[in-house]
Amino acid sequence: MKEKNTSAIGHSLETYYSICKEYEKLWAEFAKACKLSPAECGILFTLREGVDTQAEICEELSMPKQTANSAIKKLEAKELIRLLPSEKDQRTKKICFTKDGELFAEKNIDAINAAEERIWAAMTAEEKEFLIDISRKYNRLFKQELEEFLNHEH
User: Fold this and answer.
1) Which SMART domains match (predicted)?
2) Cα angle value 110/113/119 (rounded, 5°)
3) Per-residue pLDDT averaged across 68-96, rounded?
4) Residue 82 per-residue DSSP state
5) How many distinct structural domains can be found in the chain?
6) How far, rounded to the nearest angstrom, does the alpha carbon of residue 23 sit from its chain's CA centroid?
7) Confidence check: pLDDT of 57 > 70
8) 3-class SS at 74?
9) Has residue 151 been placed in a domain?
Protein backbone atom coordinates (compact mmCIF):
# COMPACT_ATOMS: atom_id res chain seq x y z
CA MET A 1 0.00 0.00 0.00
CA LYS A 2 1.18 3.48 -0.86
CA GLU A 3 2.42 5.62 2.02
CA LYS A 4 0.40 8.75 2.75
CA ASN A 5 1.96 12.03 1.77
CA THR A 6 1.97 14.20 4.90
CA SER A 7 3.13 17.42 3.22
CA ALA A 8 0.74 20.36 2.90
CA ILE A 9 0.50 19.75 -0.85
CA GLY A 10 -0.06 16.04 -0.31
CA HIS A 11 -2.81 16.70 2.23
CA SER A 12 -4.64 19.21 0.04
CA LEU A 13 -4.31 16.90 -2.98
CA GLU A 14 -5.79 14.03 -0.97
CA THR A 15 -8.67 16.31 0.04
CA TYR A 16 -9.21 17.21 -3.61
CA TYR A 17 -9.18 13.52 -4.62
CA SER A 18 -11.68 12.78 -1.85
CA ILE A 19 -14.02 15.49 -3.15
CA CYS A 20 -13.74 14.12 -6.70
CA LYS A 21 -14.49 10.59 -5.46
CA GLU A 22 -17.47 11.87 -3.48
CA TYR A 23 -18.83 13.55 -6.62
CA GLU A 24 -18.42 10.31 -8.59
CA LYS A 25 -20.15 8.36 -5.79
CA LEU A 26 -23.11 10.74 -5.91
CA TRP A 27 -23.51 10.10 -9.63
CA ALA A 28 -23.14 6.34 -9.09
CA GLU A 29 -25.85 6.56 -6.42
CA PHE A 30 -28.13 8.37 -8.88
CA ALA A 31 -27.51 5.71 -11.55
CA LYS A 32 -28.20 2.92 -9.05
CA ALA A 33 -31.45 4.60 -7.93
CA CYS A 34 -32.47 4.61 -11.62
CA LYS A 35 -31.50 0.90 -11.91
CA LEU A 36 -28.76 1.80 -14.38
CA SER A 37 -25.02 1.30 -14.55
CA PRO A 38 -22.93 4.48 -14.62
CA ALA A 39 -22.22 3.78 -18.32
CA GLU A 40 -25.94 3.42 -19.13
CA CYS A 41 -26.67 6.61 -17.21
CA GLY A 42 -23.94 8.53 -19.04
CA ILE A 43 -25.31 7.39 -22.38
CA LEU A 44 -28.82 8.56 -21.52
CA PHE A 45 -27.45 11.97 -20.47
CA THR A 46 -25.54 12.35 -23.74
CA LEU A 47 -28.60 11.28 -25.74
CA ARG A 48 -30.56 13.97 -23.92
CA GLU A 49 -27.92 16.47 -25.06
CA GLY A 50 -28.38 15.43 -28.70
CA VAL A 51 -25.44 13.03 -29.10
CA ASP A 52 -26.91 10.06 -30.98
CA THR A 53 -24.25 7.68 -32.32
CA GLN A 54 -22.04 5.21 -30.49
CA ALA A 55 -18.89 6.84 -31.85
CA GLU A 56 -19.99 10.29 -30.62
CA ILE A 57 -20.97 8.85 -27.22
CA CYS A 58 -17.57 7.18 -26.87
CA GLU A 59 -15.87 10.46 -27.74
CA GLU A 60 -18.07 12.57 -25.45
CA LEU A 61 -17.73 10.26 -22.43
CA SER A 62 -14.18 8.98 -23.11
CA MET A 63 -15.79 5.56 -22.98
CA PRO A 64 -14.29 2.44 -24.58
CA LYS A 65 -16.31 1.18 -27.56
CA GLN A 66 -16.89 -2.20 -25.88
CA THR A 67 -18.30 -0.55 -22.73
CA ALA A 68 -20.62 1.66 -24.78
CA ASN A 69 -21.76 -1.27 -26.91
CA SER A 70 -22.56 -3.35 -23.82
CA ALA A 71 -24.45 -0.48 -22.15
CA ILE A 72 -26.37 0.26 -25.36
CA LYS A 73 -27.47 -3.39 -25.58
CA LYS A 74 -28.66 -3.26 -21.96
CA LEU A 75 -30.59 -0.04 -22.60
CA GLU A 76 -32.19 -1.68 -25.64
CA ALA A 77 -33.16 -4.70 -23.52
CA LYS A 78 -34.73 -2.33 -20.99
CA GLU A 79 -36.62 -0.80 -23.93
CA LEU A 80 -35.32 2.69 -23.17
CA ILE A 81 -33.59 3.15 -26.53
CA ARG A 82 -33.68 1.76 -30.05
CA LEU A 83 -31.18 1.79 -32.90
CA LEU A 84 -32.13 3.09 -36.31
CA PRO A 85 -30.06 3.30 -39.51
CA SER A 86 -28.50 6.73 -39.89
CA GLU A 87 -29.82 8.84 -42.75
CA LYS A 88 -26.24 9.96 -43.51
CA ASP A 89 -24.50 6.57 -43.36
CA GLN A 90 -26.38 3.26 -43.40
CA ARG A 91 -23.46 1.57 -41.60
CA THR A 92 -23.94 3.88 -38.61
CA LYS A 93 -26.83 3.40 -36.22
CA LYS A 94 -28.63 6.37 -34.72
CA ILE A 95 -29.60 5.87 -31.08
CA CYS A 96 -33.06 7.14 -30.17
CA PHE A 97 -35.24 7.09 -27.08
CA THR A 98 -38.26 4.82 -27.19
CA LYS A 99 -41.53 6.22 -25.88
CA ASP A 100 -40.77 4.61 -22.48
CA GLY A 101 -37.21 5.91 -22.70
CA GLU A 102 -38.43 9.44 -23.31
CA LEU A 103 -40.71 9.20 -20.25
CA PHE A 104 -37.82 7.76 -18.21
CA ALA A 105 -35.54 10.60 -19.31
CA GLU A 106 -38.14 13.23 -18.44
CA LYS A 107 -38.68 11.72 -14.99
CA ASN A 108 -35.02 11.10 -14.14
CA ILE A 109 -32.49 12.81 -16.40
CA ASP A 110 -34.42 16.06 -16.71
CA ALA A 111 -35.14 16.06 -12.97
CA ILE A 112 -31.48 15.71 -11.99
CA ASN A 113 -30.51 18.33 -14.60
CA ALA A 114 -33.05 20.68 -12.98
CA ALA A 115 -31.52 19.91 -9.57
CA GLU A 116 -28.09 20.84 -10.90
CA GLU A 117 -29.52 24.09 -12.26
CA ARG A 118 -30.94 24.85 -8.79
CA ILE A 119 -27.53 24.13 -7.24
CA TRP A 120 -25.89 26.44 -9.77
CA ALA A 121 -28.49 29.13 -9.09
CA ALA A 122 -27.73 28.87 -5.35
CA MET A 123 -24.12 29.89 -5.99
CA THR A 124 -23.06 33.51 -6.35
CA ALA A 125 -21.78 34.78 -9.68
CA GLU A 126 -18.30 35.00 -8.12
CA GLU A 127 -18.43 31.37 -6.91
CA LYS A 128 -19.52 30.13 -10.34
CA GLU A 129 -16.82 32.14 -12.10
CA PHE A 130 -14.17 30.94 -9.63
CA LEU A 131 -15.23 27.29 -10.00
CA ILE A 132 -15.11 27.54 -13.79
CA ASP A 133 -11.78 29.39 -13.84
CA ILE A 134 -10.03 27.11 -11.35
CA SER A 135 -11.34 23.99 -13.09
CA ARG A 136 -10.03 25.25 -16.42
CA LYS A 137 -6.67 26.07 -14.87
CA TYR A 138 -6.39 22.64 -13.24
CA ASN A 139 -7.27 20.90 -16.52
CA ARG A 140 -4.81 23.04 -18.49
CA LEU A 141 -1.98 22.33 -16.04
CA PHE A 142 -2.84 18.63 -15.90
CA LYS A 143 -2.86 18.48 -19.71
CA GLN A 144 0.63 20.06 -19.79
CA GLU A 145 1.93 17.54 -17.25
CA LEU A 146 0.32 14.65 -19.12
CA GLU A 147 1.83 15.78 -22.43
CA GLU A 148 5.26 15.96 -20.77
CA PHE A 149 4.77 12.47 -19.35
CA LEU A 150 3.65 11.07 -22.70
CA ASN A 151 6.58 12.67 -24.54
CA HIS A 152 9.11 10.86 -22.35
CA GLU A 153 9.85 7.20 -22.73
CA HIS A 154 8.81 5.15 -19.75
Assistant:
1) HTH_MARR (SM00347)
2) 145
3) 93
4) E
5) 2
6) 11
7) yes
8) helix
9) no
